[in-house]
From TrEMBL:
UniProt protein name: Flavodoxin (FldA)
Cofactor(s) listed in the protein's UniProt record: FMN
Family note: Belongs to the flavodoxin family.
Cross-referenced InterPro entries: Flavdoxin-like, Flavodoxin, Flavodoxin/NO_synth, Flavoprotein-like_sf
PROSITE patterns according to UniProt: FLAVODOXIN_LIKE
Amino acid sequence: MAETNLKAQVIFATITGNNEAVADNIISILEERNVQVKKSEISQTEPEELADYDLAFLVPYTYDEGSLPDEGLDYFDDLADVELPGLTYGIAGSGDTFYEGYYCLALDKFDNQMKKTGAKRVADLVRINLYPSPKDKERLVSLVDETIAATKK
């Protein structure tokens, strides 16, 4: 496949390892598409870094009854102060359907926060119950491909 010259950052938060597996799946797909990619744990990352990338994928987990990851609270808050009009992003993450009305709620919260930056999302949020299944991996391929297609100039 041809070089895309696109750069992506995949930012994740995980307790159980499920979200790191989601992030690793996204990274593998990006690498197959010849996109340069940087993997970042959310507590070790600043939102301003996103200005250096064409694509971003946020992979937060939802804790308890719709709570954001504790280690991602500063990142979430700091996103409100960043302008990213040239960025295309996607959001995926795991949750537990046991929590019904709160299932993967952090994805929606991060999506709303990212919209404030001026970045654009073109693909649906990918909600994964616990660990990513083969069907979830297919949905991640769609997420990545749609986001790449919208980013190419």
